[in-house]
Design a protein that fits this description.
The structure is a homodimer.
Chain A: H1 6-13, H2 17-25, H3 32-45, H4 51-58, E1 63-68, H5 76-89, E2 93-98, H6 103-115, E3 120-123, H7 132-141, E4 144-147, E5 157-161, H8 163-176, E6 182-187, H9 192-208, E7 216-219, H10 223-233, E8 240-243, H11 246-258, E9 268-270, H12 276-280, E10 287-289, H13 292-303, E11 321-324, E12 327-329
Parallel strand pairs in A: 1-2, 1-3, 3-4, 4-5, 5-11, 6-7, 6-8, 8-9
Antiparallel strand pairs in A: 10-12
The structure holds a DNA duplex.
Protein name (chains A, B): LacI family transcriptional regulator
Keywords (chains A, B): DNA-binding, Transcription, Transcription regulation
Domain HTH lacI-type (chains A, B): 4-58
Chain lengths: 338, 338
DNA sequence: AAATTTCCGGAGAACGTTTTCCCGAGGTAG
DNA sequence: CTACCTCGGGAAAACGTTCTCCGGAAATTT
């Protein structure tokens, strides 16, 4: 009972393997009577198609590889979940690989996935430039979409949130609620999210008040850095602390409270990403919510390239870069200063 | 260059496909000279074995299916990560499925994974009893290990933390730091973690002070319930609030602060699981840390059943249930009351 | 009525491995 | 010298699909 094959169904229904395959796959019209008999036999025997054999013959596994830098990074689980959902809706399964933030491991895992003949790759690159080489290599073999973070211009199709728009939302909100002396807690490095959010803040803050001194400090995307950064900027008494992501913001929130600052009375704090932790912080964190489901859906859509053969026409097919608009989630940490 | 097959390597090295397979798989001794030639040719052509063909022939995909109830549940990402790591160490890849806490979806996903001919299944059941039927079905077809939550006795091999031992650690700690009037914020339902932690608390509390009134309230494993539950128990002024997991504890912490209670001065709060959020709460949460890496390693170990053929000898092979000892993480929320 | 097309179904060749046979050469034992 | 292994290697059969030919019958056209 474990292994019923097409042969068995063919024998039981008194016709050929080819016919059974056709009726079950619906790949070619087949006589109504025969079809019924076949379907019945298949049902009765409990036939279940063997995806492995199918994959070998049709050269398509229906599996896409998903490589993430750190599944434990709190922003990724919801993204992974939506990706899994979106891909599954298209009949594709997800082979998961975690590369532990290491570009070399990343390269190795990509190699293995290719060996397993995934139909496509979904990749959140671990490093802006050190991931590049492997990515172009892989992209030459299968459809590949970069997610959340970029990997240099023109390397591959990519989907991400519009970081600049998100930062603009934050700055508008702060201005509208009377904040006048913001500062920015960002991340150094060349990761696209870090760069985009940083430059968007600088542009927006300058537009708001060209005469204001610019207060920006850069570290990494962590709670610890958020805490430490507060000590650097608090002496200048900003009335708003704009953070490059939620982890930094949570750290800032903790340290500000320790220092006896009133949030949001004395100072507003904002984050970015809207990880689950953001709503649970105290006070709850105003942040920019990434349209995770849409990002996933868009990525899934980009994965299907034209009808197979069209995959390798021009080596310089134009690269598509999708940017989706985020949404501002206003919570207690930026309530209007009275 | 995309598809170099054994045939190509054979042709290039002037020997037969069989020989090439043998030398590359190392499945049978082969002449030193020939081996060298073959390896050289393979290297030169950039041969990469086709896992799909291999799987078809050898009836083993090297893929294990992992079904989780909700990847976004904050306890799972770290577990998934360690599982992926442990399995990858054994040369196996992970096909991920999220069933959205729904037993029917769970059943469907398990079916698909079996259709894809996974070698084994790793399952965190969505529901203690409604998942049972599918599980026994699946377990009859491939090695299957239940993780974190049980699914009725004797259904399949399982790996989980020793909830009773964890709860005992908590109670000992509270007793040692002078807490005398604990209460318990638990979860209703039959999920094994909920039941075990609840009964362990009751047994431990009774042993501590048989005359103490028992204060236990039951809801679900959520922050919201933690907040709500505090309103129910705070009037009786416990000096310790023991929670069935970290989410409940975080909610309790928030509500207690709102009510003006001093944690840990007036009352200690403890959690369970040690999710990332626990260390970031304010005050940082004392909790029970699950040995995630060991759980994963043990699960991976259980998956390899005797040498293939031994898989279906007695229909009533004894079921193995591994329980691993947790560790108490003492943080600020239970500092000794002075 | 003959010629052409359409329709349904079967035989069998792929897909890229692994593995079972089989064969010949050389070595050892009898 | 014959008989029997061992050893290195090849031919070919699986594994379970899909898909391309092909052939015959029925339906349509000329």
């Amino acid at each position: 009972m474990a292994d019923v094959t097409l042969r068995d169904v063919a024998r039981a229904s008194g016709c050929s393997v080819a016919t059974v395959s056709r009726v079950l796959a619906g790949t070619r019209p087949v006589g109504a009577e025969t079809a019924r008999t076949v379907r019945e036999a298949a049902e009765r025997l409990g036939y279940r198609p063997n995806h492995v054999a199918r994959a070998l013959r049709s050269r398509s596994t229906g599996i896409v590889g998903l490589v993430v830098p750190q599944i434990a990074n709190p922003f990724f689980p919801s993204l992974v979940r939506e990706l899994e959902r979106a891909l599954h809706a298209g009949g594709r399964a997800v082979l998961l690989a975690d590369c532990d933030d290491d570009p070399e491991t990343e390269a190795a895992r990509i190699g293995e996935l290719l060996g397993r003949r995934v139909d496509a790759l979904l990749l959140i690159p671990a490093d802006e430039r050190r991931s590049r080489e492997v990515v172009v290599d892989a992209a030459a073999q299968v459809p590949l979409v970069l997610l959340d973070r970029g990997c240099g211009p023109g390397v591959a199709d990519s989907v991400a949130v519009d970081n600049a728009a998100g930062m603009a939302l934050v700055l508008d909100h702060l201005a509208a609620t009377g904040r006048r002396r913001p500062c920015f807690l960002g991340a150094a490095g060349t990761a696209s999210a870090a760069v985009e959010r940083r430059t968007a803040y600088e542009a927006g803050a300058a537009a708001l008040d060209p005469t204001a001194p610019e207060r920006t400090v850069l570290g990494d995307f962590s709670v610890e850095w958020g805490r430490a950064a507060v000590d650097r900027i608090w002496p200048s008494r900003p009335d708003a602390v704009v953070c490059a992501n939620d982890l930094i913001a949570v750290g800032a929130l903790q340290r500000l409270r320790q220092l006896g600052a009133d949030v949001p009375g004395d100072v507003a704090v904002t984050g970015f990403d809207d990880i689950p932790l953001a709503g649970l912080a105290d006070p709850a964190l105003t942040t920019v919510c990434q349209p995770v489901a849409e990002l996933a859906a868009e990525a899934a859509r980009l994965l299907v390239r034209g009808p197979a053969g069209a995959a390798v026409p021009g080596p310089r097919r134009p690269v598509r870069a999708v940017r989706l608009a985020p949404e501002l989630i206003v919570r207690a940490s930026s309530a209007r200063s009275s």
